[in-house]
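Notes on consecutive records. When two proteins share a document, each keeps its own sequence and its own token line. Never mix them. Below: protein one.
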Amino acid sequence: MDNEEMVQLVTKEILRQLQQNPVITQGQSLPSQHKALIIFTGGTIGFEQGLAEIKKLQGLCFAVTAVLSASAEQILGIERVTEALGSHIDIVTAHSPYPGKILREADIVIIPVLTQNTAAKVAHTLSDTMVSTLILQGLMMGKPVVAACNAADPLDSWRAQYTMGNSSPGLIKALQGNLQKLADFGMELVPVDSIAKVSQKRLCQKEQMAVNHTAEPAVGKPAHKKAVLDAAAIQTAAQNGTKSITVPKGTILTPLARDVARECGVELVQG
């Protein structure tokens, strides 16, 4: 087995372990990896589970800015959001200036509860609210947009619990058609309990694509795919008590991985 194959296997195993245990060891201080724009609508189906998923991402060094629609501010309340995610996070409400700069700087847009109303607006490209505008512009910027679709799915089991599972075939078709349009626009629709896992995966893919683009050989030279050692691998190694990691020659070490290694006291030895 060559060095490239070894690093790929190690990275795959580390990512698997991260998915099983995505919380940082208590007392560790790590730099923020990614900026996440979290958009809260006024929906309650899956809201508490959505908060727990965002909390997991914070444990993985995601810096969070929360946007609350007018109905979210009224129904859910700013206090509940800050209680779960911390009073230090930035909050944007319907009365705030439009957060265009925050959207541009965000690495990912996450919607913990996608309501049927918001799904219908975005599916028909209506940008008459701050929330629908942010989602549409995020998609147009090519940013990863991940949304929990439980509240918008007419056949979701939670709908039946709330006695809303008896829709006519025509209504079911229309509501599911809205979700299909969103998927066609590039939105990733997931169950609420998959938000953290899918968001992390999307950004790992984005980082990998950027690294691969950087590592592309010059025209006329043979292509040699290079292995990558990223921040997730360093983070998990530190959690397991590793103090030194040998980096095989030719392996790409991301800048964030160097920062995490320095913060965790892990020595990187060039092999």
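Protein two starts on the next line and is unrelated to protein one.
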Amino acid sequence: MDPLISPLALALERQVGYPQKLVDTIGHPVMWFGKLIGFCDTRLNTSARTPAQRKLAGVVALGLLLLSVLIVTTGIRTILSWLPLGWLLEMLLATVFLAQKELGRAVAAVADALRTSLAAGREAVSHVVGRDPATLDEPGVARAAIETLAESTSDGVVAPWFFLLLLGLPGIALYKAVNTADSMVGHLNDRYRDYGWAAARLDDVLNWIPARFTAVLVTAACFFVPGASPGKAWAIARRDARKHDSPNAGWPEAAFAGALNFRLGGPRSYDGELVDLPAFGDGRSGLGPSDIMLALLLYRRTLDVLLVVSAFVALIMLVS
């Protein structure tokens, strides 16, 4: 793989994103993954199967998804390798699997809406979180947006970049396929506890390094955000990350909480059921639109640090 692919993909996607006209015309690869995942779910995850059979069906479905993605992306990469500037086209395709621009836009929209009214804030945050927005007050909406921003910095940006760096276009596409499968079927309810086991466990494995590296990047970014504390970012991440049920999600969330002296997490409602989740950080929990914007500043500086790291790695690869 050309070493310039990962830094150029980061730089380009951050500015351009995935055009809405393409979404309207042909959809998005993650949507295509979702259709295949849904197709397998409907046909393989039936109530007639035993728990063991459902678990095996989930392994088979995940295998089919990954094999399909691997065949297509490896074929595309092989064809592009025959072209004089094929690596540039691979870079363009890789940007599809990064989410820097859209994540920042969606979270900023929550801050803008919340300045208008609580109802508008609830509506805006409903597009980025899975919890019940109707139960949230203004601080709850702000915390939900910031928590999503923190977690998605890892699985929407850092992890895809990591697998792009390691394995090129097939790597980033395979990661997004697993992450999409986990978001759709990796739930601990009666329908998906067994069927979604393989997707959830593989997603945990793939995100182990990126989640911790995200906490490191957030810590470094604190040096470029007025009032942010790099010491507290890393200390709170190390102290509180393990509280999360996920082995990975707590790292970026706790790092953001420590960096900005926020208190994130805590009880929340999903489908009408109150879930008691751990809190991260020791700071303020009464957050508002200005705090969302501060978190977005930390997010952007984190992306800056990631781009510098990516460029440095590319430089090492070029001269070695």
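For the record: The mean pLDDT is 94.
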